[in-house]
Every structure is written in C-alpha cells, then in structure tokens.
Amino acid sequence: MPKVSPELLSILRCPVTGSTLVQEGEELVAAEADSTGSKPRYSIQDGIPLLLPPELLAAADAAGSDQHDAPRKA
Question: How many whole angstroms separate alpha carbon 74 and alpha carbon 61?
C-alpha cells in the first residue's frame, strides 16, 4: 500500500468540502461530509492521489486515457 507522506497530507484538501484528508488504506477520505452527508473518497494510483470529484472522475474514465494520445490525421 503506497503511503502518502505526512507533508503532502498537511497541504492537500478535499476539492468538494475543502476539509483535510486522511489516508485509509489505498484511499484518501475527507474529514468532513459533503452536502449529501457522505465523506468523499479519493483513490491513490501509483502513489498519486486522484483528487477529482466523483462525477469528474467518472467522466475522465469514460473518455479513456488513450483518446488523448491518438495521432491526428492530416
């Protein structure tokens, strides 16, 4: 399990609630709940926290990473 350094955690904030983040396993969890009453969770991939709100993360996954690397036709 990749551990996020305490120095990095001290400056990171939840993009939804603005609260601090706490590492739980392979996720970062907001210290405060959002407007729905749940605490936003963010995955850590290759040691990098993915701090996208859930709706934007779903859109990014749907677009696919290879879409941006495709060669352009002249």
Answer: 27
**Range of the structural domain that residue 37 is part of:** 6-63
- Encode the chain (74 residues) as per-residue pLDDT tens digits: 678 889 999 999 999 999 999 999 999 999 999 999 999 999 998 888 999 877 787 777 777 655 555 555 55
Q: How many Cα atoms are found within 13 Å in the side-chain-facing hemisphere of 43?
A: 5
- What is the helix (H) or strand (E) element at residue 42, kind and residue range? strand 41-45
- Decide if 1 is inside a domain: no
Question: What pTM was estimated for this model as a whole?
Answer: 0.72
Q: Give strand pairing partners of 35.
A: none
Pick from 35, 36, 5, 34: which is nearest to 19 by CA?
34
